[in-house]
Specification:
With 100 residues, this protein is an all-alpha fold. It has a single domain, classed as Up-down Bundle (Chorismate Mutase Domain, subunit A), CATH 1.20.59. The protein is 77% helix and 0% strand. Helix 1 packs across helix 3 and helix 2 packs antiparallel against helix 3.
């Protein structure tokens, strides 16, 4: 997707704000799947899956080529995001099983 042409900083900011709202919704949806993974995974050792992390990065980089996003920026963002999501998944995994 490409940015629409803007003539003023107001237009730029409105579009960035619009995208931020969309991104927050998508990140919240993604977190919902992470929380489901915490419920589904039987072993705490399964929470962090290095092969899956690298698979996600490879898929993101492939999508970057299609959409024209700098792969280095995307990789840094995704790795940071995934680390936070993995930490959250560990917390959820422990919470789900704390009484069992």
């Amino acid at each position: 997707m490409k940015a629409v042409p803007c003539e003023t900083m107001q237009e730029v900011r409105e579009n960035v704000d619009r995208l931020d709202r969309v991104l927050v919704g998508l990140l919240a949806e993604r977190l919902g799947y992470i929380e489901q993974a915490a419920r589904i995974k039987q072993s705490r050792d399964a929470v962090r899956d290095e092969d899956r992390i690298e698979d996600v990065i490879a898929k993101v980089k492939a999508q970057c080529k299609i959409d024209g996003l700098d792969e280095n920026i995307a990789e840094r963002l995704w790795r940071f995001m995934m680390e936070d999501y993995i930490a959250h998944e560990f917390v959820k995994w422990d919470e789900i099983r704390k009484d069992g």
